[in-house]
Write a structure and sequence with these properties.
This is Transposase. GO terms for molecular function: DNA binding; transposase activity. InterPro entries: Transp_IS110-like_N, Transpos_IS110, Transposase_20. This protein has 18 helices and 6 strands. The protein is mainly α. The protein folds into 3 domains: 58 residues, no CATH class; 137 residues, Helix Hairpins (Orthogonal Bundle), CATH 1.10.287; 135 residues, no CATH class. The chain has a two-stranded antiparallel sheet. It has a two-stranded antiparallel ribbon with strand order 3-6. α5 runs antiparallel to α10, α10 crosses α12 and α14 crosses α16. The longest helix is centred in the first third of the chain and has 34 residues. It is globular.
Length: 347
């Protein structure tokens, strides 16, 4: 069958439970082969069924297998987390838009508007008009409703900067009451989503404690969310024989287009799990920042091999994939000496 979103999920599971051999055809394969039958871009359900049967007969399919329950639970909760993260980003963008219109000078005082003092300010004094007539002590008193250590030299400095910026603000003042109500509703929803994400992360930590290979990935230096995303996207890593299989699963394998004397650019195929691809990239960035081996490999790629930083990161994704599959298959933890013996000895 061709998995169109979630619609084939229940049927595939039912067939597998009945002992049937279920295989999947990539929708891209169906799309590119539908003109082979009649040299026409026309599309219909009977034609699609014929094309799917044809490509299966030629071996262009992959096996459908259900993961263990713990991996299915992890995949479900990570999918849920991605939904709420998307909503959180959308709300944050709405709040930033509000500030750009009503108080554009705000970011000269608070670079990060999500810090505790900034959140207290936006709850008590959301507009410049609320701040302009206040004193430093009155602002600090308002902060104490939402934070324990509101004063001090830092508090007095920030309060003075806020008042000064509020007095010279060029923000929009029309329909201010309605705008402040809108900001209040945005804050309520934002805080609710933050609480949801915190609960989800705790549940993820509990689930990872049931998966022994999570500790092996943690030994590399990966964080909880990256480990959960990799395991939810790739499933049981023991089913892979080489890191290249994990890269292909994520669509990180290379694709080249050449013809005669023309040599096309080598690009990523991106035919795989987009979420797994994203978190392998983020995991590599994390390791370049906090793992000495990956930091040294990245430095060598950029300074000695003259790679661009972006190219080096994608090269290190391949290194990470090989390390992940290697330590899981062998039942080991991460060893800097095995990962990069030359740089380890030099250090």
């Amino acid at each position: 069958m061709e998995p169109t979103g979630h619609y084939g999920y229940n049927l595939a599971n039912w067939l597998a439970d009945k002992g049937k051999h279920v295989v999947m055809v990539n929708p891209a394969t169906t799309k590119r082969n539908k003109e082979n039958r009649d040299n026409s871009p026309s599309k219909s359900d009977p034609k699609d069924a014929l094309v799917i049967a044809d490509v299966v007969s030629r071996g262009y399919y992959y096996e459908y297998s259900r993961q263990a329950i713990v991996f299915q639970r992890l995949k479900t909760i990570m999918s849920d987390r991605e939904f709420w993260v998307t909503n959180s980003v959308r709300l944050q963008n709405r709040i930033i838009r509000w500030l750009d219109i009503r108080f554009p000078e705000y970011f000269s005082v608070f670079k990060d508007w999500t810090c505790i003092r900034s959140l207290a300010t936006l709850k008590e004094f959301p507009s410049p008009q609320d701040l302009a007539s206040l004193s430093v002590s009155e602002v600090i008193t308002g902060w104490r409703e939402h934070m324990k250590r509101a004063g001090g030299s830092t508090g007095m400095q920030k309060a003075a900067q806020l008042i000064a910026q509020a007095k010279r603000s060029v923000g929009e003042t029309t329909a201010l009451d309605e705008a402040k109500q809108d900001l209040g509703r945005l804050f309520q929803e934002f805080e609710r989503i933050v609480e949801i994400l915190e609960r989800i992360e705790k549940d993820i930590q509990v689930l990872l404690s049931e998966i022994p290979m999570a500790n092996q990935l943690r030994s590399i230096g990966l964080g909880t969310i990256c480990i959960a995303a990799i395991l939810s996207g790739a499933g049981d890593l023991r089913q892979y024989a080489h890191g290249r299989q994990l890269l292909r699963k994520a669509g990180l394998n290379l694709a080249e287009s050449t013809s005669g004397k023309r040599k096309g650019q080598i690009v990523l195929s991106k035919r795989g799990d987009a979420t797994l691809r994203k978190y392998l990239y983020l995991a590599t960035l994390q390791l370049v920042g906090n793992n000495p081996v990956f930091r040294q490999l990245h430095k060598n790629n950029v300074q000695v091999k003259q790679m661009k930083k972006h190219q080096s990161v994608f090269k290190l994704i391949g290194k990470l994939a090989r390390i992940i599959i290697g330590i899981v298959v062998r039942g080991e933890t991460f060893s800097p000496e095995k990962a990069a013996p030359i740089y380890t000895q030099a250090a």
